[in-house]
């Protein structure tokens, strides 16, 4: 079940584990990373699992844009909503999912 943020205390930054790519084709390194609190119209999701797809691998191996590193791959994820910044956002998300 989603946990709503308290209106009296804003969400804080959190520390998570992530596989970080520091350069094209370099080995992924498990590191602690700080994740900023969600802003307006954003949500925080507790990721349970993720995968690296072919487009991730292509970008990871590409030397065309080295300024995009370091980066964290794995945009195909599953998890649960942890913080909703506003009730309006919840309404928009439910509307999108039920459309």
UniProtKB/TrEMBL annotation:
GO cellular component: cytosol
GO biological process: formaldehyde catabolic process
UniProt catalytic activity: a primary alcohol + NAD(+) = an aldehyde + NADH + H(+)
Keywords: Metal-binding, Zinc
Compartment(s) where it occurs, according to its Swiss-Prot or TrEMBL record: Cytoplasm
Domain Alcohol dehydrogenase-like N-terminal: 40-81
A GO MF label: zinc ion binding
Protein name: Alcohol dehydrogenase-like N-terminal domain-containing protein
């Amino acid at each position: 079940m989603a946990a709503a943020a308290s209106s009296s205390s804003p969400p804080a930054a959190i520390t998570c584990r992530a596989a970080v790519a520091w350069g094209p084709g370099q080995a992924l390194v498990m590191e602690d990373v700080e994740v900023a609190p969600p802003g307006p119209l954003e949500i925080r999701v507790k990721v349970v699992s993720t995968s690296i797809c072919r487009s991730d691998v292509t970008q990871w191996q590409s030397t065309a844009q080295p300024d995009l590193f370091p980066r964290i791959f794995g945009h195909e994820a599953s998890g649960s909503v942890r913080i909703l910044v506003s009730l309006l956002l919840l309404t928009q998300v439910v509307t999108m999912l039920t459309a």
